[in-house]
Amino acid sequence: MRRQKKHVRNTRENLLTTASNVFSNKGYRYATVAEICNRAGANIAAVNYHFGSKKALYIETWRHCFSKSIETHPLDGGVDSNAQPEERLRGYLEAFLALAADEDNRMFWIEQQERANPTGLLNEVIRRELLPRLKGLMKIVREILGQQVSEAQVLLCGLSIISQCHEPMAMRRMQAKMSESSKALPSIDDLSALASHVLKFSLAGMSAIRKEAENSERLIKNAKEKKIDNNGSRS
User: Fold this and answer.
1) Nearest to 102 by CA among 69, 65, 60, 64
2) Among candidate residues 205, 174, 172, the one with its CA nearest the CA of residue 189
3) CATH superfamily of 1-63
4) For 80-235, where are the alpha helices, taking DSSP H only?
5) How confident is the model at residue 186 (pLDDT cuts 50, 70, 90)?
6) Would you give the DSSP letter of residue 180?
7) Where on the phi/psi map is residue 186: left (φ > 0), alpha (ψ -120 to 50), or beta?
8) Contacts with 16 (C-beta within 8 Å, 6 or more apart), sequence order
9) pLDDT digits (tens, 9 = 90+) for 50-70
10) Residue 17: which residues within 8 A CB-CB, separation 6 or more?
C-alpha cells in the first residue's frame, strides 16, 4: 500500500516536472498531453487521473514552479522583518533577481510563453499567489514614502521597482539563447550591481515623491492657517 502511494506521488511529481519543461518551451497551445506523458514515462491517462485535464495540469504546473521558486528564494531575502524598510527593500530586490536568474525556474519561461500566446488560464492563480507578495512590497514602499503619499503613487512606485527587475532579467534570459554577434546589448551578469542600482534609483525617486507630498501638505496647512487668521482679523 505504501509503495503504491509512493508510486502515485512520484508519477504526479514527474508529470509536473516534465510539464514545466514542455510548457516553458512550447507554451500551452503547442504542448500536448501525449508528449508530457511520454517524456514522464507515464500512461496517457495519468494526466486525467492526477489533474483532471490539460488545463488543470497547466495551472498546477505554474503553481508548482512558483512554490519551488519561493521556497528556494524567499522574497524577504533573509532580512529581518524588523529591519529598516530600505534594508528590507534591498533583500526583496536581491531575492527577486536571484529567483528570476535561476535556470531551474521554469515559472518565468511559462509566463513568457503566456505573454506571447495568452490563454488567460493563469490569470487567477497568478493573482492569488502573487498578490500577497505584492502587498508585502507595497508595505515596504509605503513605509519609505510616508503616510502623505497617495495609494496610487505607492502602487506606481511598487510597479516601477518590479519592472526595473523584471525587464532586465527577461532580456538576460532571451540573450542567453542568442549568439554574441546578435546581442543588441551587453548581458547583465552582476545581479548584485543591478540590485544596488535599482535600490539607489528607486530610493532617490521615492525621496523626491515624499518631499513633494510633504511640501504640498505644508502649503495646504499654511493656507488653512492663513485663512483662519484672516477670518479672525475681520471679526
Assistant:
1) 69
2) 172
3) Homeodomain-like (1.10.10.60)
4) 85-101, 106-116, 123-145, 151-175, 191-234
5) low
6) G
7) beta
8) 57, 60, 61, 64
9) 999 999 999 999 999 999 999
10) 40
